[in-house]
Structures are given as C-alpha cells and as structure tokens.
Amino acid sequence: MAYILLLTAVVMWSFVGVLVKYASLMVDSNTITFCRFFFGVVFLGILIKTNQQDFKLGWHNKWVWIGAISKCINYIFENIAIAIGFAYGNIINLPIQTVFLAIMSVFYFGENITFRKIIAIALCIVGVILVSWKGSFAALISANLTTVLFIISGIGAGVHILSQKKLIGQMDSANMNFSTFLLCTVITGAPVTQTFHTNGEFSMTGLFSLVALGLITGISFYISSKVLAKLPLLTIAIVTNLSVIFSLLWSWVFFNEPITGYIISGAVTFIIGIVFLSMPAKERLSEAVKFE
Predict the structure, then answer these.
(1) Rounded distance between C-alpha atoms, residue 130 and residue 134, angstroms
(2) Of 189, 164, 163, nearest to 40 (Cα)?
(3) Does the chain have fewer CB atoms within 10 Å around its N or its C terminus?
(4) In this predicted structure, what is the pLDDT of residue 19?
C-alpha cells in the first residue's frame, strides 16, 4: 500500500508544471500561489475532519513559520518561472533541493563529506546545466533568469523539508501540513488584492488547474510524510525521480514542448546523482543485507 501511495504522490507532482502553465494562461502567478495553498488547506481540512481528528495549529512553533515562509518562496518563484518558461522547467527543482540538503547535512548536521557525495552533487549540477543548456549557449544564457528562479525555489523546498523533519516528531502529519499551509495562505493572500489580474479569458481548464494544484499541495505532502517512515530512502528516491520522466512526458503531450537529447541526458544525469546521494553507507548496506 505504501508503494501505491508514493506512486500516487509522484504522479501528482509530475502534473504541477502543466497545471501551473494552464493556470498562468488565465491568472497571474501570485493568484496561482495563493490558490495552491488555499485549496490545499481546504482539502487537508476535509481530510482531518474525515479522520475525526482535532485541528491543532502549531503557529507557536518556529519551525512551522520557517516551513511556511520557505514553502511560499518555493511556490512563488516556481510559478513565476513556469509562467515565463517551459512547463517541464521545474524538474530542476529536485536536484537543486537535493544538493542544498546534502550541503546542509554536512554543515548543519555534521555529516562527513564523502567522495561519493561530491560526485553525486557534481552530477546534479551538471544535469541542471544540461537541462538549462538545451544544446546551445544562447539557450543557456536566455535560461539564466528561469534557472535562477528555480534555484531559489529549490532552496525554499529544501528548507521546507528540513522544517518537516523537525516537526514530524512533534505534530501529526495532517496538522503539521495544515498549520504550515494555512499560514502560507495568509502570507500569500495578503498581496493578491493588489496584484490580481487576468492573463486571458476565464476557462474551465484554468479553474480546474487551480483546484487540482491545491489538491496536490494538500494531499501529496500528507501522503509523502506517511510513507517516509515505511519505505527505504533509496526506494523513495528512485520512485520520486519518476516524476521527472512524467513531467517531461506531460509537457510534450499537452504543450508540445521540445524535449531534446540534452534535456533528457541532463535529467538522467541528475537522477543518477540523486540516487547516489540516497544510497545508504556501505556499512549500513552490508548490515541490511546480512539481516535480510
């Protein structure tokens, strides 16, 4: 069951780029960010009530605030970058987030910097460059803005993950995400009255995209926090990377975006890097084999 839940979350994440792109054809990026959180809170609230749980806001905890601010940064910059770039562009969020967490594991958590970790980080960086390059230096230069936006977005996502790791032992996953995303709704909702504008005519596709993005925000993170304790980290890393493949496929199917050999090779390169970083240490691996 845990594998099915994880795959469900992965498929949800893979549609984010396409849904944001469709929504951006109707409304501005700030409105998309607000709706992702607002509808996410609605779906989480329904889930909590369905499970007959009590609502427990954790706004007194600094890590809820850190998680909320970082998640706002993640979504704000991701939505802007997708709106002005390609629907598949957010695939580089994953390696950027991974590199950030690897660096934090060394400088914040005191883990050793190993040769394998250095190689893995290098593969992630090379993969991002290849995806941004698209086969020409002109494309690399023109992609600088969106790449920078995705780098900021990926770091925001990484800090949000750190906050979840800090909170998971203090709050249940539903209330943890509900508290964080409700605070995100308040933060991103404040400027919407001043920034709201339409980019085109109203469409059911755009409206569906806004609601679906909220569903993904509310449900997928709840699912992922549930399966983290049940599946090996390496398995989670491998399955999660399927979202990259799906994202490229959806962007080609729905928007006919050019998926070149450079983009595919870049994606494969940083996927290998992410898997390397997720592999257990040799001594732990040998112990796992021994006990199995």
Answers:
(1) 6
(2) 189
(3) C
(4) 97
Tokens at 76, concatenated: 């704000």
d(CA 64, CA 179) in angstroms, rounded, equals 7
Q: Is 290 exposed, middle or buried (0-12, 13-18, 19+ CB in 10 A)?
A: exposed
Has this prediction a pTM greater than 0.85? yes
Question: Rounded to an integer, what distance in angstroms lies between the CA atom of residue 162 and that of residue 26?
Answer: 34
Predicted confidence (pLDDT) per residue in 127-144, tens digit: 998 888 766 666 556 567
Helix (H, G, I), strand (E, B) or coil at 80: helix
Q: What is the CA radius of gyration of the chain?
A: 19
């809170």: which residue's tokens?
A: 41
Q: Are 32 and 24 in contact (CB under 8 A)?
A: yes
Residue among 251, 267, 247, 277 at smallest CA distance from 14: 247
Cβ(183)–Cβ(64) under 8 Å?
yes
